[in-house]
Specification:
The complex is a heterodimer.
Chain A (H helix, E strand, L loop, with lengths): L2 H24 L8 H23 L1 E2 L2 E2 L3 H14 L4 H18 L1
Antiparallel strand pairs in A: 1-2
Helix pairs in contact in A: 3-4
Chain B lengths: L5 H16 L1 H10 L4 H10 L3 H12 L4 H12 L1 H13 L3 H9 L3 H9 L5 H33 L7 H13 L6 H17 L7 H5 L1 H8 L4
Helix pairs in contact in B: 1-9, 2-3, 2-4, 2-9, 2-10, 3-9, 4-5, 8-9, 11-13
Classes of the chains: A mainly alpha, B mainly alpha.
Chain lengths: 104, 221
């Protein structure tokens, strides 16, 4: 990781995310009101966040790898089923993963 | 601002604190992905839209190219344009106030504003501004705490931070999975991302998963 990459990502992401918000505040409502666009847009967060779970929990670069992270994710899933609040879910996953990492 | 009902203030503050606390997870994830404490804080100050921030550092952390990180973050940010279009006619602001309104347009400020509809337009406006600025304050304070904390901890795997990040994504997507259809979309996206992972450069499977959203959203259900 070099600092050119991290600064580029930071500046471009901030600029584009602000521009998106500003566009929404400035264009006539009907421009983005197409039903298909709205349906797809509503599903984008679910699709991307789901892919991110897999990419962060089961992948190392371009390989699918099963390791301590999966144990953490399984506990997070169990915590969510038990209606645990967000911080509990994250901490439970971290603790489980760290334990499995050190046992290994 | 005219007199604001206690209920509106209470709703805004409770959302601000709860959501702002997620900033700890972002600060930690950002440092674990290789960003500095300063960069992590600038992310929350300047980008200020949680899912996009998590995606940007997540893609970089998994070895993806800068362009993949920015594309994933931008796609996650598009929903803010739709929120902004709903908020603009309500707020009716110009100039610098419009810039501020745009920056504070996120899931939570829009959500609280819309939830205040039974209390009238003034309450909706107050809900937007109070929640937007409240989340902004707490999100940034907690980002700093998370980033400094993660920096002090060192090796992310040793403290389980590498599992905390996907667990945070799971926690973010979980409340959205209200119907069987949405759960099918999520499961399909996971399977799709796993299957294409060996064939694409790191980070691209995340962006490619937007195709799952296109496929499921193309026709009305």
């Amino acid at each position: 990781m070099n600092s050119v990459t991290t600064w580029t990502v930071l500046i471009a992401t901030s600029g584009l995310c602000f521009a998106i918000k500003m566009v929404g505040h400035s264009v006539p409502e009907r421009w983005l009101a197409h039903p298909r666009l709205q349906r797809i847009n509503a599903l984008v967060p679910i699709a991307l966040l789901s892919a991110l779970i897999v990419a962060q929990g089961l992948v190392v670069h371009t390989r699918v790898v099963i390791d301590h992270r999966l144990a953490g994710l399984a506990v997070a899933l169990a915590a969510l089923f038990a209606r645990a609040p967000f911080p509990v879910v994250v901490v439970a996953a971290a603790v489980t993963s760290a334990i499995v990492y050190h046992l290994h | 601002m005219p007199k604001v009902s206690k209920n509106t203030v209470r709703d805004s503050l409770s959302v601000s604190l709860t959501v702002g606390a997620y900033g700890v997870a972002f600060g930690a994830a950002s440092v674990a992905a290789g960003f500095s404490v300063l960069q992590s804080c600038l992310f929350s100050l300047l980008t200020f839209t949680g899912a996009s921030q998590f995606a940007a550092v997540g893609v970089v952390g998994s070895g993806g190219a800068a362009i993949s990180a920015v594309a994933a973050a931008t796609m996650l940010g598009t929903r803010n344009a739709l929120y902004a279009m709903q908020m603009a006619p309500l707020l009716r602001v110009r100039g610098l106030r419009r810039v501020a309104a745009a920056h504070l347009t996120i899931d939570e400020s829009t959500g609280v504003a819309l939830s205040q509809a039974p209390r009238g337009t003034a309450a909706m406006r107050a809900g937007f501004w109070l929640t937007g600025s409240g989340v902004y304050l707490f999100w940034n304070v907690f980002t700093l705490l998370g980033a400094v904390g993660a920096k002090a901890l060192g090796n992310p795997a040793s403290w389980g931070l590498d599992a905390a990040v996907p667990a945070a994504f799971l926690g973010l997507v979980w409340p959205r999975l209200e119907t069987t259809f949405l759960r099918v979309v999520a499961a399909s996206s996971m399977v799709f991302a796993l299957v294409i992972t060996p064939w694409l450069p790191a980070g691209l499977p995340i962006i490619a998963s937007a195709l799952v959203a296109v496929a499921f959203g193309w026709r009305p259900r």
